[in-house]
Amino acid sequence: MTQFAGKSALVTGSTSGIGLGIAGALAARGAHVLLNGFGDVDAALASVGDAAAKSGARVAHHAADVSKPAEVEAMMRHADDVFGGVDILVNNAGIQHVAPVEEFAPERWDAVLAINLSSAFHTTRLALPRMRRKGWGRIVNVASVHGLVASAHKAAYVAAKHGLVGLTKVVALETARTNITCNAVCPGWVLTPLVQAQVEARAISGGLDLDAARDELLAEKQPSGQFVTPEQLAELVCFLSSDAAAQVRGVAWTMDGAWTAQ
Ligand code: NAD
After folding, report:
1. Which residue has a Cα nearest atom 8 of ligand 1?
2. What atom of ligand 1 comes closest to residue 15's alpha carbon?
């Protein structure tokens, strides 16, 4: 399991949920991993550290708030200092805010756009020069089905994720003649803290218990009736980071229980 031995990865927003799963899978395959994000950093370091211990990889954390370009710049310098740069960049940090557009607080709009979209622009522009010098790189943007289709009350999130799919295509074109690829993954519902908050809101507004709210949420959009898991997404990211995926470029790859097949 040392497929990525000698490579270094940065996964933004990797102290929880999908990012944590991706970081663990990359570390298990031998990539040194720089974690990023808030919350229980020690638990994230311990869990990815366990995976890394078996492969000989190293794990570190940087607490950059990715909505702040200066902090993203500091994080990228830290990646250079600790691991000699970023070979595999996974732009995963994201937040959600749910409200009708005319009630959408402008500061929430700005925050969602900054974290879910602009942060990927900043990490990408800073990582690319070194990837070009090394002649190899992988950029995977964690978009969403909401990068392809819309849902009501998610104006900022849908705009940001559509933007992230657009950014993915542009970077794929600009790197098309190199060994650097850029792709997006587009998950449907994954039961992480980000979605648990939406399940709880639905339970309260509908007078449902949590199981019923979870079932209703899935039934509305995801025909499989099952959540995608962080582990399944991590396998997809590892594939997109592999040499076998060298000609997969500029795609927005769904893993959504047939959500967007409808
Ligand atoms: P999560 O809330 O479990 O994790 C989000 C991570 O981002 C955490 O580590 C958090 O600390 C970090 N983060 C938040 N704001 C940050 C900031 N300003 N700077 C740095 N880190 C920050 O969420 P998740 O469900 O694992 O979501 C991960 C990504 O997957 C997001 O981009 C989300 O939009 C996307 N996604 C999630 C789902 C889903 O159903 N859960 C579906 C499609 C796409």
Report:
1. 13
2. 9
Cα–Cα distance list, 200 to 71, 133, 142, 204, 213 (Å): 32, 47, 24, 6, 7
| Arithmetic mean of pLDDT over the chain | 97
Written as one letter, the residue type at 201 is A
Sheet holding 180-187, edge to edge: 59-62, 32-36, 8-11, 88-91, 137-142, 180-187, 252-255
Query: Is position 157 annotated as part of the catalytic site?
Result: yes
Residues 6+ apart with CB under 8 A from 11: 19, 22, 23, 26, 33, 34, 35, 36, 90, 92
Q: Any idea where the domains of the chain sit in the sequence?
A: 8-188+229-248, 191-227
Question: Taking Cα atoms as reference points, which of 262, 260, 189 lies closest to residue 228?
Answer: 189
Banded model confidence at residue 1, pLDDT cuts 50, 70, 90 = low
pLDDT in tens, 78-110: 999 999 999 999 999 999 999 999 999 999 999
The rounded Å distance from CA 95 to ligand 1 centre is 5
CA 140 – ligand 1 centroid, Å: 14
Q: Kindly report the pTM of this predicted structure.
A: 0.98
Choices 3.40.605.10, 3.40.1190.20, 3.30.565.10, 3.40.50.720: CATH for 8-188+229-248: 3.40.50.720
Catalytic choice (4, 83, 109, 157): 157
Distance separating alpha carbons of residues 99 and 226, to the nearest angstrom:
25
202-227 burial, b at 16+ Cβ within 10 Å, e below that, comes to bbeeeebeeeebbeebbeebbeeeeb
Counting from 1 in the atom list of ligand 1, the atom nearest the Cα of 93 is 7
pLDDT (average), residues 40-52: 97
